[in-house]
Specification:
With about 290 residues, the protein is mostly helical. The protein has one domain (about 5-30, about 55-275). Helices cover about 60% and strands about 0% of the residues. It is built from 16 helices and no strands. It has helices at about 5-10, 10-30, 40-65, 65-80, 80-85, 90-115, 115-125, 140-160, 160-180, 185-195, 200-205, 210-215, 225-230, 255, 260-265, 280-285. α6 packs antiparallel against α8 (about 140-160). The chain starts with a helix and ends with a helix.
């Protein structure tokens, strides 16, 4: 049995195993060496953030039973996608696929910050008043559906091996929990690691209440795209212990920490300056 067939047969167990294993490691690390003092009840935040994860999992299974792996199997069977068309060697296709899909995630992340309608969905992720391992999986169901549709389109155009899709999904979930964790790394180690992977200190800047810091460090897994496209910021102005996490316009715990408030958030209030270029649009409006 080749790697594609093996991972296709055991995709769910592989993904769940890595999810729960990584979650347990990061949660224990947060207890042993936390980076910041939490400002809210951990039980409340974890209960509601993880409740949102369960809801999203149910929604995805109902709408897309085969998920991204099923689309990769479909593309393989019908020979759809560039990598199938050009008959690229398996190992090359594996590496190219994982890197290319990571780049698409970076572009998607920039897009949900750039378009005000999509920022309404994405601000559910940013409105968390604390920053820990559960923040990495806190997304509105509509954004999760959008993300899956973008993955489908990417798979149909690219034609990645099934194994690449499984590996990418595992990496994305594991690194999202790692770089959202409230953990402390030695500065020298962090400096080296962020050359290869997005570290907690690197991504935490992205969750700053300051909008120019929010609109930086978009990478989830590979850190290269931020450096390449000029969206990299080394440290927050106030430092990691002094910075404020969240969004200025959503500071009420009942609104941002409880599941009903998170689900309603995209439909509440105006789009603020956090959306890229929004501040410029407002300036132009004032001139007219």
């Amino acid at each position: 049995m080749n790697l594609d067939s093996l991972l296709t047969a055991h995709e769910l167990s592989v993904r769940l195993g890595f999810f729960f294993g990584t979650f347990a490691i990061m949660a224990a690390w947060e207890l042993v060496a936390p980076r910041r003092a939490l400002t809210m009840s951990k039980a409340v935040r974890w209960g509601n953030n993880l409740g949102l994860v369960v809801l999203n999992s149910v929604v995805l299974r109902l709408l897309f039973p085969a998920a991204a792996v099923g689309m990769a199997v479909f593309a393989r069977e019908y020979g759809w996608g560039l990598l199938h068309y050009f008959d690229v060697p398996f190992v090359v296709a594996l590496v190219v696929s994982v890197v290319a899909m990571d780049f698409i995630i970076y572009l998607q992340h920039v897009m949900v910050h750039a378009l005000p309608a999509l920022w309404r969905l994405h601000r559910v992720h940013h409105a968390d008043l604390d920053y820990d391992v559960t923040t990495g999986s806190r997304f509105h169901p509509l954004e999760i559906i959008l993300s899956m549709l973008i993955k489908f389109a990417t798979i149909m155009v690219l034609g990645p091996p099934v194994a690449a899709v499984v590996i990418f999904e595992v990496l994305l979930n594991a690194t999202a929990m790692f770089n959202h964790a409230n953990v402390r790394l030695p500065e020298n180690l962090d400096r080296i690691l962020r050359l290869f992977v997005v570290t907690p200190d690197m991504h935490r800047v992205h969750h700053s209440v300051e909008d120019d810091e929010t609109n930086s460090n978009f990478g989830f897994n590979l850190p290269w795209w931020d450096r390449l496209f000029g969206t990299y910021r080394d440290q927050p102005r106030a430092g990691h212990e002094g910075m404020t996490i969240g969004i200025n316009t959503f500071r009420e715990p009942r609104q941002v920490a409880w599941l009903p408030g998170m689900l309603a958030m995209p439909f509440i209030g105006k789009v603020t300056g956090y959306a890229i270029n929004r501040r410029q649009w407002e300036s132009d409006d004032n001139k007219n």
